[in-house]
Design a protein that fits this description.
7 helices; 281 residues; Double-stranded beta-helix; 16 strands; 2 domains; three-stranded antiparallel β-sheet; eight-stranded mixed β-sheet; single chain
């Protein structure tokens, strides 16, 4: 490793900062391997002071796989790979609701993303942090019998979980609900997933998109899911990233969950890339 490059663990649970690297330049094989290995070890990687433009951001992301175009959220003009997450002038905007809950991105699809890269363009005067949790560490802290029980189960994930009752009951709410269901029908994923590169096992359900566990009645399913969510919320499994302008977070969506904290009342603008993944097993 170059003397100027330093890997600094962020917390004991997950996360590491890579210091002294310039992401505006073409990524060498050496630096690609450094970032990839750090991501596999710490699950989310942070960079500071990366004053790069959208073209450079896209080129950086393409090193790690094919970039997706989000099926629902509008993208940045001339850059279909980049989602612009822009708040209102006085705080969280309309899309913030679905990120202010613990989740892995797009588990309502058959092949959810491998990861995501988020760059801070405009940050609030205070607040607006992002929290991450290590779903592998959470799995490891379960009892042997609970691991064995959960490993046999599958759960249904659905985009319509993001609809509130008021939205469904509003004018044309049921029609919008049906269109979403048709465009993105519910999918099944294992409740415990194995990371395809490291072999680590992790909990793979989340509050935003998981509907129910297959083979259990509703009361049983809700009880098990609520137990899992409470377990995941243990601060010992988490870190909280404090954004600065031109900071970048790169998380492994297969083994982490994240939560965008909505405690701000000034503008927040972020640019996000999403990297194609593989079918969960």
């Amino acid at each position: 490793m170059d003397n100027k490059i330093k890997i600094k663990p962020y917390t004991g649970a997950l996360g590491a900062e890579i210091l002294g690297i310039d992401l505006s330049k073409k990524l060498s094989k050496k630096y690609f391997n450094l970032i990839k290995n750090t991501l596999n070890e710490y699950h989310v990687v942070f960079f500071r002071e990366q004053d790069i433009n959208p073209t450079q951001l896209v080129k950086f992301g393409q090193n790690f796989g094919t970039l997706e175009t989000h099926p629902l959220i509008p993208t940045l003009k001339d850059y279909p790979e980049i989602i612009e997450l822009k708040s209102a002038e006085d705080g969280p905007g309309p899309y913030a609701r679905n990120s202010r809950i613990w989740h892995s991105d797009m588990t309502y699809t058959k092949i959810p993303p491998m990861g995501a890269i988020l760059k801070a363009e405009t940050i609030p005067e205070s607040g607006g942090n992002t929290m991450f949790l290590n779903a592998s560490l959470a799995y490891n802290q379960l009892s042997k019998k609970m691991k064995a029980f959960l490993s046999k189960l599958k759960a249904v994930h659905s985009i319509v979980m993001t609809n509130t009752k008021d939205e469904i009951l509003s004018e044309n709410g049921l029609l919008r609900f049906a269109k979403m269901q048709k465009a993105l029908p519910p999918v099944e994923h294992p409740l415990i997933r194995t990371h395809p590169e490291t072999g680590k096992k992790c909990i793979y359900v989340n509050e935003a998109f998981t509907s129910h566990i297959i083979g259990l009645n509703r009361n049983e399913s809700d009880s098990i899911l609520n137990f899992i969510y409470k377990h995941l919320h243990n601060p010992d499994f988490q870190c909280r990233f404090i954004w600065e302008k031109n900071s970048i977070a790169f998380w492994d969506n297969r083994i982490t969950q994240h939560f965008a904290v909505g405690d701000y009342d000034t503008k927040r603008v972020m640019h996000r890339l999403t990297i194609e993944g593989t079918k969960p097993n």
